[in-house]
Amino acid sequence: MESITDIKILAEKVKANIQKVMVGKEETINQLLVALISSGHVLLEDVPGTGKTLLAKSMAKSLACTFKRIQFTPDLLPSDISGINFYNQKKGEFEFRPGPIFSNIILADEINRATPRTQSSLLEAMEEKQVTIDGETHSLQPPFMVIATQNPIDSQGTFPLPEAQLDRFLLKVHLGYPTKEEGMQILKRFKENNPFEAINEVVTIEDIREAGRLYSRVYVSDDILGYMMDIVEATRNHPEIVLGVSPRGSQALLKAVQVYALINGRDYVIPDDIKALVKPVLAHRLVISHSVRVKGNGVTSILNELVQQIPVPSEEEIVKGSY
Fold first, then answer.
1. CA within 20 to 30 Å of 209's CA: 11, 96, 156, 157, which one?
2. pLDDT tens digits, residue range 179-218?
3. What kind of architecture, by CATH, is found in domain 1-215?
4. What single-letter DSSP state applies at residue 20?
5. Looking at the chain, which runs of residues are DSSP E strands?
6. Whole-number Cα distances in Å, 164 to 116, 237, 253, 284
7. What is the CA angle 260-248-126, rounded to 5?
């Protein structure tokens, strides 16, 4: 894989494969691809039955990668995720038994049902791409992506993710209900057979690694960088936002829009790339005032307002770079 055309073809193949199972959701699949190529992680949040787990499994099955699903429960221990050193009586020594975290794609199902101690065991793996057990560090091989799901309306027996862990997710994605037409397609598609059983691997692990090496070369003009920072600065100065976007958040937005440009067949970033990813990349990193939070959808409304108010850069300087 050597060109943006190859990466766009990769993205189209994965999308077409997943859409054999999922009806619509093209933009959501794009967002998962952004996380995959940039070695980021995704938090899928929505009500039960909207296809969160099915989408994550369909993504994993489309890739020639190892995949593990972890069902998070209150009795899940950190060692159930990372693995343990156990004593092998035949050999007379301790051996390391790797846990499910040693896979390329991890589905952390209902992550908010585990205790904070277990949730935090993911932090090092997600941020550092490594796991330390009994003082010994074990590296995780790329690509490595955690797709976590949670139900926002079920509070009984759950442990809300702290801000420090939310910040480890590149994107927070909401699936939403399908339209009437999409609902009819879903009923027809699943009426006789489960289409998930019919999908196959369409992308190799080396293709994903190569795409991950290329996206940083996507051109980003100073005007685009300035536009991004105008949005970031606006979150820091907004009267209804208690905690604005951190430097790590702005870096996350930069790499996300670079990958988004690539999978859309461009070697340069345009303002529409930023508009498409502002909410999934930044919304979960903001802490808003209590008065706004009780209204519901406060963060989304604020970001929409900021994007509408901040001037969009002209296109004269945007495409001057070359891949």
1. 96
2. 899 889 889 888 878 888 888 889 988 899 889 888 989 9
3. 3-Layer(aba) Sandwich (3.40)
4. T
5. 42-45, 67-71, 83-88, 93-98, 105-109, 130-133, 136-139, 145-150, 171-173, 241-243, 287-288
6. 11, 21, 17, 11
7. 80
- Least confident residue range of 46-60, 96-110, 237-251: 46-60
Residues in the chain: 323
Within the chain, all domains assigned CATH 1.10.8.80 are found at 218-313
Comparing CA positions, the residue from 135, 57, 146 lying closest to residue 101 is: 146
Which CA distances in Å does 268 have to 13, 220, 254, 284? 22, 6, 12, 26
**What is the distance between the alpha carbons of residues 8 and 265, in angstroms, rounded to a whole number?**
5
DSSP string, 85-102: EEEETTTTEEEEEE-TTS
